[in-house]
Amino acid sequence: MRPKADRHAAIATVAPDQTIFRQGDRCDAVYCLHAGAAKVHVLSQSGSEAVIMIAGPGDFIGEGCMLEQAERVCSVTTMTECEIERIEAAAAWQRLRNDPAFAREFMHFLVTRNRRYLSDLSDHHFHTTEQRLARALLRLPNIGGGGDGRHARLPRISQEMLAEMVGTTRSRVNFFMNKFRRLGMIEYNSKADAHLVVHPSLATVLRRD
After folding, report:
1. Which of 30, 59, 164, 195 is the one with CA 20 to 30 A from 82?
2. pTM over 0.90
């Protein structure tokens, strides 16, 4: 689902590789991603960086602004050209009170995001690396792939980034990516501008014991 922009809101077009906000910044606004893809990443105290997820159209980012005096717990950087609506914290609260459609979409997002975090935690306890990678690929945002159920037109994601998302090594990701491609579950090639395509058949990996 894609939230409808407020008619008074300004939606900015942001180029790839631009920082929306940084970990440790003061939370002063929530952002709604109307088009494009952005990576959500965190930095540890030792300086190691990990990609947590990739946000796509319809996702909110920076919802921590709904808490008073909160700081950003992650950074968000655009991967593609994005259309992003910035909603100041006070305006977000006002829309929650006065705009039932916005409130419904925002609550749906929060509940879905919470269920995703619980699912990810369960994955790390009970699922194999192959299954965790399959889930990560199936969750990649569809930014223009049409209605055929495929995730398309997402710029090539490095295997290093996928390894960070899954919590494994690049060599393991490479092994399973080749396996998925051999089985016709995904499509990609080595060209720098190639797009990754994920087919619904990849979901069968998640149903294995």
Report:
1. 164
2. no
